[in-house]
Design brief:
The complex is a heterodimer of chains A (228) and B (408). Chain A is of the alpha/beta class. Chain A contains seven helices and ten strands. Helix content of chain A is 34%, strand content 29%. By secondary structure, chain B is of the alpha+beta class. The chains are: A alpha/beta (228), B alpha+beta (408). Bound molecules: adenosine-5'-triphosphate and magnesium ion (MG). The site of adenosine-5'-triphosphate has 12 residues of chain A, from strand 1, strand 2 and helix 1.
Chain lengths: 228, 408
Amino acid sequence: MDWYLREVIILNNIGKSYVTGSQKLQVLKGLTCNIKEGEMVAIMGSSGSGKSTLLNILGLLDSFDSGEYILSGESMAGLNERAAAKFRSKLLGFVFQSFNLIGFKTALENVALPLYYQSIPRKKRNIIALDYLKKVGLEDWASHLPNQMSGGQKQRVAIARALVAKPKVILADEPTGALDSVTSSDVMKLLREINADGITMIIVTHEHDIAALCDRTIHLVDGLIDLS
Amino acid sequence: MFNRDTWLEIANTVLSNPMRTFLTGLSIALGVFILVVMQGLGFGLQNGVQNQFSDDAVNSIWVDAGRTQLAYRGNMPNRQVKMRNSDMDAMFQQMDTVHAYSRRVRIWGVVMEHEDQQSNFPLRGVDPDHLMLENTTLTDGRYISSRDVDEETKVAVLGATVVEDLYEGVNPIGTYLLIGGVQFRVVGTFDDPASRWENKMAYLPFTTAQSIFRSSDKVDQMILGTGDMPVASTILLSDALLSWFKDRKVVHPDDERGVRIENNNEEYERYQNIFLGIELFIWGLGLLTLLAGAVGVANILAIAVKERTKEIGVRKALGASSISVLGLVVQESLALMIVSGSAGLITGVGLLEVVSPMIDHDYFKNPQVDFRIALVALGILAVVGVVSGLGPALRAVRIKPVEALRDE
Ligand SMILES: Nc1ncnc2c1ncn2[C@@H]1O[C@H](COP(=O)(O)OP(=O)(O)OP(=O)(O)O)[C@@H](O)[C@H]1O
Ligand SMILES: [Mg+2]
């Protein structure tokens, strides 16, 4: 498995602070790390240590103040909104703790949405979306609305949605945070299978069981990576 | 911009909150409905008023002769002043331009016969411009021509009541009618909706009427059209004509009866202003209703955008560009506006269509909406739709996915 490893994400001395009123909070203080293609990495750390902040920066949902971020060989410094949207659409998939499915769209429509933003024709994107629903074992639920599904099912729809545009990297912020332990391990099994297909997986979690299922764990302490 | 996918997307979001959509749609539809109905009512009022005053709605100066009040230059009071053909000719020589004119003689109760039908009607001898000056509407054939007047032809134009009484459904054009025992050819018919009195009349060429039914060269009345003369000039003209006539007919300058000149230009202008006022009022009201609707829509859209903050954040995380987010809101607003606006438009026009035939009041006639006005309303609606969608849409564009997605 090690033969094709190369860096898909390179972070060099990333700094990020939030300014609220007159207060300035330095969340990331020069963070450096690399993630190789096909790796499955867990990010852990105490609450407020900056895990979500890091993931949002990796996901181009938030900007960073200093340092260097190279995603799939391209620098992500000073991107405008448009370019960020394009990279997100091309390279990244998201899974959230609270699923973030669109409530008035069916499972199939939710999964197909990223393809809509890639201007793929309706017929074609529905076929692709159904394929991915099949992959997460929910093809029979294609026409159901999110509120007719269980938490585990919703998260699997969200995972199918993250996969549908064939991203290089999937970013998951506490994907099992709202699920019970049995469902959590099902979801983790699914994520592992997806990772086995070569998609890089970055999972924020504060559960050691979950982290243990990953290739390695990055510990965030006080805005820096704890190497101990 | 509007492909099938966009429509489905709009339909999806619009139908996802049916109550909100319904209320927004209702407020727009109501606004347009009120605009259309107000326009219709306004037109009805205008039509009615215009019709009611159409006799006086031609700017003109009327010259009449009567009995004197005052003794003057050796003449006793109570003398009947008579206008004659020579007076008319002299008057025209006094004037620089004559926009339109008609002399008039009036004969009461003349026997008119067609086949075995006969009845008494008044008749009038007139000049060709009388058609315009009296605001007569021809229903068939032609009016008195200048050749008729020059050659004293024996032709007649009949009012609707005369036709009804003497012809019983037969087309009178081209037939011969005995008027006071003399044979006339009928060349036209007319209907003057503002005056039932006028409809009982037969019009003959002025010269013919004067020589057959009046053995003198007396003229009863003179009408001068003032065309596009400014009101102030028409007042100068009528004052000048009055003193000229009084001098010529030896009438005391302070006498109010011997020669009378009526200038309806001031009145005419007043009516024109009233019509203009009604029109401005209707448009003002309509635009205000639309404006209120637009503010309502902008408000509801702003709330909708706020409610959908998270959804918009998710869409952005999934690759939605700013343009597509902007389009989502603006197109939704536009679609809402056009669909519900058209509903209001159709209901309003439909209501007027149904109600219109039932209403026939003296001051209220034919309350219909012009097709062009409906189109203008739709155009305004589209512009308003885009403008009122733009504010909330820009707010949606500024939503940052991180902030939208934060789990609280
Ligand atoms: N938009 C913001 N404005 C100001 N402060 C912020 C903002 N976002 C995050 N922070 C602060 O930055 C710090 C790191 O937040 P972050 O959400 O990354 O923590 P986390 O590691 O994900 O914590 P948790 O485990 O509770 O999710 C916190 O102190 C938080 O209050
Ligand atoms: Mg977090």
